[in-house]
Amino acid sequence: MRQGCRVSPSQRVPASGRGPARISRKVQLAVATKAIVGEKVGMTQVFDDQHRAVPVTVLKVAPVRIVQVKTPDKEGYSALQVTWGVTRNGSLPKPEAGHFASAGVEPGRRLVELRVDDSSGYEVGQELTAEVLAVGDHVDAIAVSKGKGFTGAMKRHNFKGQGAAHGNHKKHRSPGSIGACATPARVFKGTRMAGRVGGRQVTALNLEVVRADPEQELILVKGAVPGPRGGVVVLRDTVKAPAGGSR
Known about the structure:
Layout: E1 35-47, E2 53-60, E3 64-70, E4 79-84, H1 94-103, E5 112-115, E6 127-128, E7 138-144, E8 149-151, H2 153-157, E9 195-197, E10 201-213, E11 218-222, E12 232-237
Antiparallel strand pairs: 1-2, 1-12, 2-11, 3-4, 3-6, 4-5, 7-10, 7-12, 8-9, 10-11
């Protein structure tokens, strides 16, 4: 060590040789203030006040019943477990049937969890409808995308492909070289190759609510929503402010 260079106690390396202890930092994630779940019906178009065609996705939002209210004191986070529709009690597994019975809520088709920033204003058995969202609100749509199955590199990663002539023999859609020479003698992790496409949870951000009709149990949002027709879609108020506007 050079003379005249002092080391503070916080910079000293512990005797174990592992270096200074890591500082734990809690990252505060943005959580929605309201949310609802529905089923995707399909796409259509409506006309706005200026007679412009607006592409929208139609979502059927039936009234949902709260089965469980999760709090930070008990579960460590705030969330609502909801269900909708009606199903026979005998068709449910016994643990799930007992869960509905202990809550005193009629069994529904599915159980979905809605993360919210504060669940203190909700109670078990309460109903939530499409009126949770209003026209002009910006929402995030969360759903499982359509599964495309096992596809090649051209479809999965938008590769150009190889030449169609000049001696190419049955390698037109091949991804090309994926390895190296004797060094490093392996294929690097993350190399873009063929594989499964779709079938993953996708979030479409900042979709505008064009229409909300609690009587017909419909919500129309501008743009496309991931997933097939009949798929379950969770709508929450957006956690990221739209570009050029406030949340």
